[in-house]
Structure formats: structure tokens, C-alpha cells
Amino acid sequence: MAGAASRKPRIFFGWWIILGGMLGMLVSVGFNHHGLNAFILPLSDSFGVALPTVIGVLSVARIETAFIGPVEGYLVDRFGPRKMMIIGVPLMGLGFIAASLAPNFPMFVGAFLLGVVLGSSLGFGNPISTAVANWWRRNRGRAFGLMWIGTSLASMIVPAINWLIELIGWRGAFRVMGLLVFLIGLPVAAVMRHRPEQYGMLPDGDDPNLRSLQEERKSPQNESTTVNDASEEVDFTIWEALRTRTFWYFAISVSMRTGITTAVAVNSFPLIVEQLHGTPGQASFLFLLQGICSAPGRVFLSWAGDSINKRYIMAGSLIVMSVTLLLMSQATSVGMITVIWVPYAIVWGGLSSLPQSLRADLFGRRNFATIQGTMSPMQSLFSFITPVFAALLFNIYGSYEIPFLTFAGMSFIAMVLILGSKPPTKRSASS
After folding, report:
1. CATH code, domain with 115
2. 210 found inside a domain
3. Model confidence at 369: pLDDT above 90
């Protein structure tokens, strides 16, 4: 009986965390981010609201984490991901249904922000990332890369959402999405676990009977193969992290990248339909293409991050993104945008997943959610400003040239900052 009790499970539970995270990101990003872009024009027509106003509301959705991010992060670290998801998932599902019943735009905004947006934040993003960071260490890059495939799948469902809108209207589509949040989100919540140590396991499926985590940290072999500037796993408190230069360089770099990709995604339908005179179907195809191309970017770039310095991979990807944005600013046809979209989507995939694992590498697992939540206000600020900035300039000039040129410059600055995000030390935090 003792032998049976100590026998390792056939499948390390961390793999179930990845699978659950993949489905969770599909729902969260697919419905609350990428999928919403297909609703911009229908909402504008339905409520008689100007395009920049609708985009502004959808961008305000990104600001919500600025207010609750730090508190949410603390709660995730304190109570674990599953308890937060049990609160957030039903709230998001009910939010979609309530928004579909809104008789006017102000009531739509209220239901959307207090239901969909708040529920998505509480139930998916931070809790899922924290669980993956806690259950994986040596192979954290590939773990996040696989989990973020869900975001690639989220991009690929945009054509289906666009078809659903054409079939049953935006209100009917919202109701279907609300139901799917319940059907997918609640089983995902049931799978999530906080830390492997609570269940007698170690990150990466290591056997606790063979060596302790402390012994692993001191392993000469581990030191010789680690290439992300630090051979030992550190655990910074939020106050220690805030006193490091790395925290601010990293936070600003990731926030700028998030703002860029959010602005491009939100404005893609107006870009294709209004500026380049394409169709909503062609605009939704870009998201399908993005999903197809970003998946290998997430997997291979994140996988490479387990053996090559993650900061270098991110810097190279940001250079590619800067060049593609420069080319997009000069595009004159849907065909040109489509071609440029391929390399953009590949590096976008890697740049979405790599920061999660790099954040855990830099500051440790113990306070991962709190540190991530404390960075979220800055990300929210950029995610709000950049889409509105692009929409306003398009409304004035009828072109996205200036916004995309601006984003190309921002991507270059983000590259410089991520190179400067060197692993901090306890000494640097106390000085």
C-alpha cells in the first residue's frame, strides 16, 4: 500500500493546468478581446454611436485591471486561482447575456464593463497565468507557449463570430457567447490548482522523494544549463520588486507592446472596411491568419526561451514587429496588409507568451500574481490610449499612417527597454 501511495501519477498534473489554461485563454481572449472587434461596426450602427466612442468603450475595458489588478493579484496569491475563477466565470457569462438585453448604449456599457470585463479579469487572465507559473519552472517557457495556443485559437474563431453576427445579430451572438463561457469556463475552473507543493509535488513533475526544491536550486548541472542570467530561482516580494530598475523597464516594455497589439487588433476592422474598402469577412480573415501564424510563434519562440535568453528573443521579435508596423503604415490594399500580417502574427505570438515566463524567471513564483497585478495598471493605460489614439487620428485624417508609424517607434523603444531588464538581485532591491 505504501508503494502505491508514493507512486507518481502517470500524467503530471501540470499538463492538465496547461490544457485548462489553453481553453480558458480561448474563452477570455476570444470573447473579450479578439471577438469583440467584430462587434465594433454592428454596435456603432445599432446604437447610433460614433466609431471612436465604441472603440473607446472597448478600450476602457482594458483599464479595469488598472483599478483591481493589484488587489486581484494579491487575492490570487492568497486564495489560489480556482476560487477566483469560480467568482469570475459566472460573472462574465451573465455579463454577456445582460449586455445583449441592453435597450441603449449606456446600459450596454454598464453590463459590459461590470459583467464581461470584470468577470474575464477575475476568472481567467491572472489566475491562469499564476497556476502555470507555479506548476512549471525549468520548462516554464514551453508551458506558457503551449498554454497561449489558446490565444491563437481565439484569433481563429473571429470569422465564426462574424458569421454568427450576420446570422442572428450581435445580441444573439452575445447570448451564445455567454452560454459558452459557462460551459467551458466552469470545467476549467475545476481543473485549476494553486501550487504543486500543496499536493506533495514539485514543479515540472520532479519527484520530491529524490531531491528537494532547494537541492535542485543548487544543482551544478542546473547552473550550467540555465542561460537566463540566473541559476537560482528567486522570490521577490512586491516591495522588493518595485525597488528594482528591472521591474519598471520590464513593465513599460510589455505595456507598450500590449498597447500596440491591442490598437492594431481593435482598429483592424475599420482599417480594412473603411480605409482599404474591404469587407468584414476580409477583416475577420486577418484574425484567422493571425491564429494560424501566431501558434508556431508562441510554441517555438517560447520553447527557445528555455535554452536561449528570453530577453534576446523578445528584443529580436520587437524589431520584426517594428518593421512590419512601418510597412503596414504604407499599405494601400488588403492584399498588402495580409502579406505583412504573417511575420507580424508570428512575433506577436511569441511576444504574448514570453513575458509571462520571463516575469516568473525575474521575480519568482511566490508572489507572481501580485507582481503581475501591480504591473497591470500600466498595461491597461497603454491598452486604452493607443486604440483611441489610432481611432481619433483615423477619424480626422481618414488614414492609419500616423498611428502605425508611431507604433513602429514604440516597438523599437520597447526593444531597448527589454534588453535593459536584466535579472535583479536582492541587493539591487534594497539599495
Report:
1. 1.20.1250.20
2. no
3. no
In a domain, 223, yes or no: no
Q: pLDDT tens for residues 284-341?
A: 888 888 888 888 888 888 888 778 898 999 999 999 999 999 999 998 899 999 999 9
CA distance 331 to 38: 22
Write the CB contacts of 183 (distance below 8 Å, at least 6 apart in sequence).
none
Q: pLDDT tens for residues 55-87?
A: 777 766 666 666 677 777 888 888 888 999 999
Given this model, what pLDDT does residue 415 score?
96
In whole angstroms, what is the distance from residue 48 CA to residue 43 CA? 8
Using CA atoms, how far apart are residues 133 and 353, in angstroms rounded to an integer? 12
336 phi and psi angles, rounded to 5 deg: -65, -45
Q: Is residue 207 part of a domain?
A: no
Q: Read out DSSP for 382-422?
A: HHHHHHHHHHHHHHHHS-SHHHHHHHHHHHHHHHHHHHT-P
Segment 164-183 mean pLDDT: 95
Which string of b and e fits 102-121 if b means at least 16 CB within 10 Å? beebeebbebbbbbbbbbbb
- Angle formed at CA 414 by CA 155 and CA 153, multiple of 5 degrees: 10
How many structural domains compose the chain?
Answer: 1
Torsion angle defined by CA atoms of residues 373, 375, 377 and 381, in that order, rounded to the nearest 10 degrees: -140
Confidence at 360, pLDDT banded by 50, 70, 90: confident
Asked if residue 309 belongs to a domain, the reply is yes
Residue 226 pLDDT exceeds 50: no
Q: How far is CA 37 from the centre of its chain?
A: 16
pLDDT of residue 113: 86
E strands within 80-220? none
Distance of CA 334 to the CA centre of its chain: 27
Full domain range(s) for residue 86: 12-199+236-430
Rounded to the nearest 5 percent, the helix, strand and coil shares of the chain are 80, 0, 20
Q: Which amino acid is at 419?
A: L
What grid cell was written down for 79? Answer: 486564495
The gap between the terminal CA atoms of the chain, to the nearest Å, is 54
Q: Is 343 exposed, middle or buried (0-12, 13-18, 19+ CB in 10 A)?
A: middle
Amino acid at 303: W
